[in-house]
Amino acid sequence: MLNVECSIYIRNMRCLKYSCLLFLLTLIFLNCRINSAAGNFKDSVVKIYVTIQTEDYKTPWQSAAPRSGSGSGLIIKNKKILTNAHVISDARFIEIQREGDPQKYQAKVLFAGHDCDLAVLTVPNAPFFDGTRPLPLGSTLPNLNDEVIVLGYPMGGERISLTKGVVSRLDSILYAHSGMDEHLAMQVDAAINPGNSGGPVLYRDRVVGVAFQGISNAQNLGYAIPLPVIQHFLADIEDGVYDGYPELGALSVETRNPALRQSLKLDGKNGGTAISRIDPFGSAFGLLQAGDVLMAVDGYPLADDGTSVIDGQTMQYTELIERKQCGESVKCEVWRNGESKTITVPLLRSHDPFLYRYEYDRRPEYFIYGGLVFTPISLNLLAQTGKELNQPASQHLLYYSQFAKTDGLYSNQNQFVVLFDRLAHRVNTYDNQFLYKTVSEINGCPIRQMSDLPQAFSMPSNNPGAERGAGQHVIRFKETSVALIMEAKEAQKADREIRSRYNVSAPACLREKAVQ
């Protein structure tokens, strides 16, 4: 009996020994593979140095102080460099450095997609690309638990860094750079730190993602822009123009509630998501209707929560629209009033003035007259206003930014113009009570956009017999029936003095817009 037990013990020990040996060999193989990846691709991963100067939307006539930053990028075909848009946004000067090369080369931006946080750069100095090779893109996304490698230049070091992890999730998330757009993202449990942004994520020696944002208060978790978003961006810019993503503009709700399905005449039908509202600036406006049930998109059947199986993954049907380019079309199978219909929706380039994204690489709009500072509602303005939006006097700015289309406030309007600040002077001493209010008209002229302001202020309301320009400026707001009134002649006289006193370099920065 003792001999039998000893035999079993020895056999188990041998199995354990072989298991440990196999585990050790696996680790050695993976380590060699990782080191090989770093060696093979280090000449194709670059460090990007930027000098950035952002705009101050609270004092829009002046920019913030310049500051330095860095990120990563990867060389792709045709001597171009792919990186994140947030790495080079508001950059005044860009340099790129290759691993092991002490020289930095000046670069320029060719395309920037702020909605998908991707950008393409190039280096006019041709020798920069000598000895490099473009990194190949993958053909498919990795599956969950597949191992990936992240290359880049996180802050704190000058040499290339390599981390590894596995794909832990594929889902649509908010892209922080635009503050508005949701796209597919790949979550990995590899460390993605500041400076890694723009670096490649490799699977089987091919690029399947670009590192771009992390998760606050989480260790070894980060997000990469996945292959479908990269491919969409690169295909979009092939014609020399970046069009962005088309918007179907159909807001939908789940149909799991049996009573809801019965009211939609879905008895005996499976799946489908109900359309609750059509965006007036979306491609589906005038084609799809509230109350329609979207049953399939381009032949992909939809579940009652709006998901479908795409490339073996369960995703929201919007991913099917995401993979389309502006100018293409999508076939929608809908259930309307108990009947099945097939509707083809042309996907138009989005021209939605009320889709508020963070703005980059452009001066903020403003107009100053008599010390009154006018500016349009924008996401940048709301973000910099911060805690002041909690005050009752300014909360309506959030309302306009969120519900202008829902509540039909967009008609004959292209922007909401706000009296945002007052450069104190005797001509505007009593005007604090009008701050943060949205302008409806000036001197009887409707204010539909910022470019209407100069013309409106050129026509003061004259009293009979008064000399030219000696009347009053009457400014009316959406939130109150009380008008702000300024003496036109006094305001014009004080205007130059105010700008000099407050170091305002230019009285206005306006962009022409056509009312939709």
Give the strand tally.
Answer: 29
Q: Cα distance, first to last residue?
A: 92 Å
The domain tally reads 3
Can you tell me the CATH class of the largest domain? Answer: Mainly Beta
Number of helices: 9
Supply database-style keywords.
flat; 9 helices; N-terminal domain of MutM-like DNA repair proteins; 516 residues; 31% strand; Thrombin, subunit H; alpha+beta; 3 domains; 7-stranded antiparallel sheet; Pdz3 Domain; single chain
Question: Can you walk through the features of this model?
Answer:
The protein has 516 residues and is α+β, with helices and mostly antiparallel strands. 36% of the residues are buried. The model is unreliable at 19-36 (pLDDT under 50). The protein folds into three domains: 1-244, Thrombin, subunit H (Beta Barrel), CATH 2.40.10; 250-346, PDZ domain (Pdz3 Domain, Roll); 366-509, N-terminal domain of MutM-like DNA repair proteins (Alpha-Beta Barrel). The strands form six sheets. The protein has a seven-stranded antiparallel β-sheet. A six-stranded antiparallel beta barrel has the order 8-9-10-13-12-11. Strands 14, 15, 16, 17, 20 and 21 form a six-stranded antiparallel β-sheet that branches. The chain has helices spanning 2-41, 85-88, 227-236, 258-263, 318-322, 379-385, 395-403, 453-457, 488-501; strands at residues 45-52, 67-76, 80-83, 91-98, 105-106, 108-113, 118-122, 147-152, 161-174, 182-188, 200-203, 206-214, 222-226, 250-253, 273-278, 293-297, 300-301, 307-310, 313-316, 329-336, 339-346, 366-369, 372-376, 417-422, 439-442, 445-446, 472-477, 484-487, 508-509.
